[in-house]
């Protein structure tokens, strides 16, 4: 385990994510525009249940066993992530195809992409369900990628816990990609180095929240230090215990947490409402977040009932996020006020 002085974290409220991909585009436009990064999406928002990106990442291993030993992992391919396709814009817009010509990728038909199964849910009508799951690098307390790198090219910063890849030291061995159980590391085939989410550390150093968080129209993302007891991160994770990690069994102690999704009740065969039966199966949520998800959901339901009854609820006020600047644990500086240096 890598000890740090402080640890930055993020909480994502899955009950407010609408899958608009604003966070994804904010990250893409800022960080992954260089050569070799075309297929990279450091921030992704996938539909669950689904295979996600890279395809089937939860079956690719990595992380640690319960006794601390490294779990063997598989290296995802570019096909698993999905290529950055070129489209026939020239033909559609400027050539004589008329209304019979439609937009499509050039060359062979693709078989997978970052959002291939978007909005495809689980269950059967009228009890089908889905929800959106945004993901970035978890900047883990016990990063498997760091331990796997033979070049010591991965470091965890002491003052904020952000995990970074030193591209000057990286030689493209990609053991980090195999070791990461969340498969949030990409390989730049042009530069021959591994690359991933940097938690927007140049913004953080200037007191500005991450691009994905600040641009989110749904007020889904909270940012801050784990030990700041006056800020939302501590209250959601440690005080109220409704923000929990994804796949804690991977053993990396991720520092991205999720408020689990609520859902409407199921309908019976006769159309009657069955409020005791959840639309999203308990076992599915447990497979993602572990047994503690049931405690988190119980707390959410209890506090929602208090709010409906007109009683005060600190938790509901936090999650409603009346004042969006208060979601960022002090990282609320306006980026337009900063004279950014360009390399």
Low-confidence runs: none
CATH C-level: Alpha Beta
In which order are the strands of the major sheet placed?
Answer: 8-1-10-9
- How many individual β-strands? 12
How many domain regions?
Answer: 1
- End-to-end Cα distance, whole Å, is 34 Å
Output the radius of gyration: 21 Å
Provide the structure class.
alpha+beta
The largest sheet, given as strand count, sense and whether it forms a barrel, is: 4 strands, mixed
Q: Can you count the helices? A: 11
Assigned CATH architecture = 2-Layer Sandwich
Tell me the overall shape: globular
Strand content: 5-15%
Description:
23% of the residues lie in helices and 15% in strands. It is α+β, with helices and mostly antiparallel strands. The strands form five sheets. Strands 8-1-10-9 form a four-stranded mixed β-sheet. Strands 2-3 form a two-stranded antiparallel ribbon. Strand 6 (185-188) and strand 7 form a beta hairpin. The relative contact order is 0.18. The mean pLDDT is 95.
List keywords for this structure.
343 residues, alpha+beta, Alpha-Beta Plaits, two-stranded antiparallel sheet
